[in-house]
Write a structure and sequence with these properties.
Elements (H helix, E strand, L loop, with lengths): L1 H17 L16 H7 L7 H20 L13 H14 L4 H12 L5 H7 L5 H9 L8 E3 L8 H9 L11 E3 L8
Parallel strand pairs: 1-2
Length: 187
Amino acid sequence: MHETAELIMKLRLVVGRFGEMDRAGWWNTQGMLASIGENVISRGFPKSQFFARARAVFAVAAQRCDEVFDAPDAFTLWELPAEVEELVDDGWQQWLEHPEPWCDFLSQVEDRMDQDLLDALVSLELVDGRIVEQVQRLRRGDDLRSVRLPKVSGLEEVEIGLLAAAFSRGEPKKLAVPFVQLEEVAV
């Protein structure tokens, strides 16, 4: 499950950076996950600046997604089931001890900011061709603010990757929030 937590963190970092004002303009952070954010935040948080920046962008992205489209009984990249979020929280505590790999990963993300979101996710090996094919078949809802994924019985790495990759159905300054609902299990 440690690998799942790392994947979620990486997906959130890529989508979080891509959605900033200096890129797609989906949420109101500007270069927080780029070198400008590092320069500003590292003064107050020299050891934990990476995680402070990530937490800030994730919170702003989650809030913005809720404002744009808040589907009841649905999950987004920023709000996953409690047991999945607990995995990420557990990983977070471990990652605080060794932030270097995360800073290196964020540098790789920044190197791909000239690509579109799907290409960046593929080149970072976070999603594969199967997910790309699925995303290319998805369409924005009639409201143009959402992207409904097919219902699933549970959220595994593939579905979480799809939640991240489906942000690519949005446009600059026009956020489309991918969401998924779980199938109801008959008892």
